[in-house]
Design goal:
The structure is a single chain. This protein has helices at residues 10-17, 87-91, 179-184, 188-191; strands at residues 5-6, 30-31, 36-42, 48-55, 74-76, 95-100, 102-107, 114-120, 126-137, 140-151, 169-171, 203-207. The chain is mostly beta strands and 227 residues long. The two termini are 25 Å apart.
């Protein structure tokens, strides 16, 4: 499942999503767990609005001390209404779109993990179905988000990724014509109808090997956390 993606620039978010984005908002292009990035939801007036949120429904700072660490960058749509980390946002229809230009997945066809980039065949930016959450802090409300995923065992492209013995999964790319229908959906059962795989012929992929990581895993955020 997708735990790293490339988001878009401020100007591109404004242009593609038709939202206001404050000039003082900043974020890196490469997004990993707990990095801040823009997402889009419907505001109280029903119009699109941008949020600056951290990647992962439950930020590390919100995991109780002494508890086992767990990642929440991806929510399985089959169980999103039951899992504690996601069910309240799902039942309240806290739906969002995650703008990006590509996402990364590991491919094992060579016998070892090689990272590949995945995006649109025409190189256009796109938006992925997500959920947002709000947290109260001493500095006011802060936001986080996750991406929704579906089974991809039969998808001509997405079945190539992840370990051979693992279930294949994919994030849900929402067609532009459906953006507002997704954001405005207030029935969780109807929202499930959006959980489909994007046509493989409209996507492309390319080998994008990463330098070997130093000990410690995921790169540390390049900016101060919202939390």
């Amino acid at each position: 499942m997708c735990t790293n993606y490339k988001t878009t620039s401020r100007d591109l978010v404004r242009a593609m999503m038709d939202v206001e984005v404050p000039d003082d908002w900043t974020w890196p292009i490469d997004i990993y767990r707990d990095y801040t990035a823009p997402v889009v939801r419907h505001g109280a007036d029903g119009r699109r609005e941008a949020l600056l949120a951290t990647f992962g429904m439950v930020p590390k700072a919100r995991i109780p001390a002494g508890s086992k660490d767990f990642a929440t960058m991806n929510a399985r749509f089959e169980s999103v209404g039951e899992r504690h980390s996601y069910k309240f946002a799902w039942r309240r229809s806290q739906l969002c779109l995650v703008p990006m230009t590509s996402f990364d997945e590991p491919c094992y066809e060579s016998g070892e993990a090689v990272w590949w980039g995945i995006g649109m065949a025409d190189q256009s930016p796109f938006a992925v179905a997500g959920l947002w959450n709000e947290w109260q802090t001493a500095d006011g409300p802060r936001h986080s988000f996750t991406q929704l995923t579906v089974n991809a065992d039969e998808h001509p492209l997405m079945r190539r990724f992840h370990k051979p013995a693992e279930e294949k999964r994919s994030i849900v790319i929402v067609p532009e014509a459906e953006w507002d229908n997704w954001l405005g959906c207030r029935n969780p059962e109807i929202a499930r109808s959006f959980m489909t795989l994007f046509p493989a012929e409209r996507m492309t992929s390319w080998a994008a090997p990463r330098p070997k990581k130093a000990r410690g895993g995921t790169p540390a955020p390049t900016q101060a956390s919202l939390f």
